[in-house]
Every structure is written in structure tokens, then in C-alpha cells.
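Human: I'm a chemist; would you kindly supply sequence and C-alpha cells for a protein?

Assistant:
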Amino acid sequence: MRSEAAEVLDLYRTMVLVRRFEERVYLLFLEGEIPGTVHQYQGQEAVAVGVCSALGRSDWITSTHRPHGHALAKGVSPRAAMAELYGKETGCCRGRGGSMHLGDPDVGMLPAIAIVGGGNTVVTGLGLAFKLRRSQQVAVCFFGEGAANEGAFHEGLNFAAVQRLPVVFVCENNLYGASTAWDRVSLVPSVAARAGAYGVDGRTVDGMDVLAVRQAAIAAVARARAGEGPTLLECTTYRFVGHSRSDARGYRSREEESEWKQRDPIDRLRAQLLDSGEADESGLETLLREVDEVIEDAVGFARASPDPDPAEVLGEVYV
């Protein structure tokens, strides 16, 4: 059995991997190497890493148009993820999905659904299948607070509640649905408070604290696995970047951004590791170099990978 200190260091390593992956993707996109657009995850790493650390490989997640962090946290390899962003045949979706549709069934991640709230009903299908099979698997749905005003949010939550499905709904409340502040579209300040209308346990947790997220996720997953039904877990967090690469963030003050960056989940855990003596500066610097090597390897792999064969464009398409 691995020690608690080793597990915490793994959380730190995975958050650093997500952050460095996104920073590299940002530069590659600006340089024109990555096609399409990207919705990045910097700042929200504690949510994906904390939740996915509570799951087994056979558990499944659904994701959103901002899926890179979820993919890496669930176990999609950096090589397969980067190659997918490049649109290459070696990508996790063979280059057919791109940034907004990352996923890999082999690690329990449904290819991401870019429709806002799209995963909130799809996850109930996963949960129902797990219940009928008595497989003890759990399904997790990641979504933003903007999706909480979509009909799919209410339909999915109600169905999962009535059927007592093994589902955990994880709201990443980063305060803005694209450029619209949450308090402009809801008189209820907490997304988790809406759980009560469906007889579901709703909890709000500091989404900038990976240990707090992990603890809440472990409890929610245990409830789901025990047949006690779904949990609505609201993680208050903040994206350090714009909604997408074309977003100049004019709707947010730089003072607000600075305040949230002082709560950077990676910096917070780093300080805890150093203060507790579970890690030292030299060890963490070595970890950072190792992660950078993984990222550079992924970029090299993606660049060298073949493009999909145009003759197979209609392959694996349901018509």
C-alpha cells in the first residue's frame, strides 16, 4: 500500500503535468501548430486531479469543451492527448475529435461533449448501465456552472436521483459562463443548493484545494458505489485564462484575477509539501524537469505522427 505522502506527491505531479501541458499547448496554438481552437484549464487543476484521484480505472467520466485537464487526470497519456490536438492518427480519438472531444474509453473517459450540459444526461446512461450490471462502477460528470441553467442539468440530476444511480455530478464553478457572471443569471448563489430540490446531497468545496476536493470526492464516490445515489459536488474555482484563446477577459478585473492567483492550487500544495517535510526544493525541481521531459516527448511524438488517411473519413461514422 502506498503512503499518504506518496499519494499527495502524485496529486502535485499530476497538477503540474496539466499546467505545463496547457502552457505548452498555448504556445503551440499561437505558433499555428495546433488547428482549431482550445479552451484551457489553468487554475482549475485541483478539481480534475482531486476528483479523478478518487476513481478507479474502470470508473468513467464525461467531460466538456474544456477537457484537457480531465483527460490527463483520468489517465489519457500526454502523447495521445497531444497527438489528438494536432489532429494526428495516433491521437486518442485518431485525430477525429481535437481539443473539444478528447477521451479514451480504455481509461474510462467518454470522448468529451462540447455541448454545454451535454454530459449531464449522458452520464445517467452510464450510471444506469452500471446499476443494471451491478458492476460497482461509478460515473462522474464534469460541467461548468453555466450548464446548471440548462434543462439537461435538471433532467439528469432528477433521473439519477429517482433511480439512485452511481453518479457524481461535479460542477466546476469558475464564476463565468464564457463572459457572463454567475450572479447575473442565478439568484441562488450556490449551485450545490439546487440539489435539495431533487433529494440529492449537495456540497460546496474549495476547488482551489486539491486535498479538499479529493476528500469530498472520495465520500461522494463511496456513497455512489454503496447504492446511495448521486451527489452534486460544487467546486469553486477560477480559470486563469480566458474562456477560449480569442477571449481578452475584458469582463473581469485584473484585481480579481490577482486575488484568485494567490490561491493557485499548485502553489498551495507545493507550500504544504515543503512545510510538512514530505518534499524538498531539490526534489520538486527534479519533478518539474521530469514533467517537462514528458511534455516535450509528447510534442515530438505528435509532430512525427502521421495524419489520418482522408480515404477513411467516413469510417466509424454512424449513418
